[in-house]
Design brief:
about 140 residues; mainly alpha; 2 domains
Length: about 140
């Protein structure tokens, strides 16, 4: 296995930019873009290889890998007092636990509303971290209105 195989490579369509955008979160900031998804992915792989070579040339350890990462199924969320209160009230109104209410809101944000905001799930590559945060933020704001 090559070192580059240890990093998640994401190629997604950007409605805003009207092109495909390639990123490799955790290894470097920025990325590449273009009109052809396959070409963007190829360019992204080359950029990943070059970044890894730079780490090695400078004698720096590579960042933790992002591909094949196992997740526990738990994470701590710090919504702040006001949002926590609003979510708890909405969960009560929905006759759900706070955990289930938030879980359902996150699922809805990630898997049901992607069409309305232009995000696509092409080739199993999904959306990037910032887009996930934007979707979650929009959903929570709708939930607490």
């Amino acid at each position: 296995m090559k070192n580059s195989d240890r990093y998640l490579k994401i190629v997604e369509w950007s409605e805003e930019d009207q092109c495909y955008v390639g990123t490799c979160p955790g290894l470097f900031y920025g990325g590449c873009h273009g009109d052809n998804e396959a070409k963007v992915y190829k360019e992204l792989c080359e950029i990943v290889e070059k970044n890894i070579a730079l780490y090695e040339e400078n004698g720096k350890p590579l960042p933790p890998e992002t591909a094949r990462k196992e997740y526990s199924g738990k994470f701590l969320l710090r919504p702040g007092k006001e949002l926590h209160k609003s979510l708890a009230i909405r969960a009560l109104q929905a006759d759900e636990s706070l955990n289930n209410f938030c879980l359902n809101a996150l699922k809805k944000a990630l898997f049901h509303s992607n069409r309305s905001n232009g995000l696509t799930f092409k080739g199993g590559m999904g959306v990037g971290p910032q887009e996930h945060l934007d979707i979650i933020d929009k959903t929570f704001k709708k939930c607490v209105k």
